[in-house]
Amino acid sequence: EAGVAQSPRYKIIEKRQSVAFWCNPISGHATLYWYQQILGQGPKLLIQFQNNGVVDDSQLPKDRFSAERLKGVDSTLKIQPAKLEDSAVYLCASSLDVGIPRTQYFGPGTRLLVL
Amino acid sequence: SQQGEEDPQALSIQEGENATMNCSYKTSINNLQWYRQNSGRGLVHLILIRSNEREKHSGRLRVTLDTSKKSSSLLITASRAADTASYFCATGYTGANSKLTFGKGITLSVRP
Questions:
Q1: Is B22 on the interface with A (CB under 8 A)?
Q2: Cα of A11 to nearest chain B Cα, Å
Q3: A86 in helix, strand or coil?
Q4: How far apart are CA A32 and CA A18, in angstroms?
Q5: Confidence band (pLDDT; 50, 70, 90) for B1?
Q6: Cβ burial A28-48 (10 Å sphere, 16+ → b, else e)
Q7: To the nearest whole number, what is the mean pLDDT of chain A?
Q8: By C-alpha distance, which of B55, B63, B2 is closest to B28?
Q9: Cα B16 to Cα A55: distance, rounded to the nearest angstrom
Q10: Which residues pair with A105 in a beta bridge?
Q11: Residue A54 belongs to what domain range?
Q12: Which fold has domain B5-111?
């Protein structure tokens, strides 16, 4: 079974530029999560999708971050414009839409450096 | 904050020794999960314990949950160098869908 795929793995941009991350979840997983992990901290949930609907985006800085999952499969997270404090690893995870609690399966992450 | 807090922040042991890591949380939970993260990689699920369970085992892993003290422990027996990683506890709350809240993590170093 293929795992969660993410691209790119690394990205370096200057502040005020835009950047986009892509995630393809495990086949059949209806729930998709985007996390931000700052160095030395645990992952913080940015947004959770169930199919193509948003379940929770309470911690997403909506003035600069946006995410979509148009066909209920892969997803894109965008930052526009980026700030220095956005430097972090952006993790995508997915889970089956069956019961609670659920195990989350994580991708390798995208490491973003904003200069 | 509902975030779990792990203790200690860092742990260094010799190969073959046991490693015990603790997690405390503040509000009632539905479940608690432990994840491992190797340097530069994504998180890997280790074990899940529900609020009505007290202890679970998986291979060399043993997790306990004390809801009266709002705490959990993860024990790794007979540690190996490959166990070197960061370990996170994640808590799930009733009514929070499948959302998990992660702690800051424990860095475990196992010396060969």
A1: no
A2: 14
A3: helix
A4: 22
A5: very low
A6: ebbbbbbbbbeeeebbbbbbb
A7: 93
A8: B2
A9: 44
A10: A94
A11: 5-114
A12: Immunoglobulin-like (2.60.40)
